[in-house]
Design a protein that fits this description.
Layout: H1 2-16, E1 28-34, E2 38-41, E3 46-48, E4 58-60, H2 65-77, E5 86-87, E6 98-105, E7 108-114, H3 123-140, H4 143-146
Parallel strand pairs: 5-7
Antiparallel strand pairs: 1-2, 1-6, 2-3, 3-4, 6-7
């Protein structure tokens, strides 16, 4: 009986230590998204509306350590390194919201492009869109973003 309990304890400890959700010191990302090419970057803690075009706004937005860990955890859970670099068609017939994500972690850079809702049956796109929605949910909860009054025009 004692051996059985010991085996279960060892297995429990091994299974619970499977993933390390602490982001490495160099974990950062930039995300361009939507119809308007808005951009968030944790590399320089900025949010830019309208892709640097005339009338765009640039503000400082800082993700907390807990928020970065939450995003990193989601990326690890969905094996973001295994996602293809380009998901969805290269061209689409009408303006469509897009995501372009660049991730830096453990001295590795990964870039992923996706057109959400264009290929709704693809599980990889659904996983990626889930990560993007998590990032945008955190972004839109920030006071600095709420003060811009952009939420009505940014499509999630």
């Amino acid at each position: 009986m004692r051996k059985t309990v010991s085996v279960f304890v060892v297995l429990f400890i091994f299974c619970s230590c499977k993933h390390n959700y602490t982001p490495p010191a160099d974990f950062n990302f930039s995300l361009s998204f939507g119809y308007f090419d808005d951009q968030i970057s944790t590399f320089d803690s900025t949010f830019i509306t309208d892709g640097n075009r005339p009338g765009s706004k640039r503000i400082k937005v800082i993700f907390t350590k807990a928020e970065m860990q939450q995003i990193y955890k989601r990326m690890i859970d969905y094996n973001y390194l295994d996602l293809p670099d380009n998901m969805g068609p290269k061209e689409h017939p009408v303006p469509w919201p897009e995501y372009y994500l660049v991730i830096n972690t453990n001295s590795t850079k990964k870039a992923i492009h996706s057109c959400p809702n264009f290929c709704t049956n693809d599980k990889k796109i659904e996983k990626f869109d889930s990560i993007m929605n998590e990032i945008l949910k955190i972004l839109y909860s920030k006071k600095e973003i709420k003060d811009l009054s952009l939420n009505k025009r940014i499509a999630l």
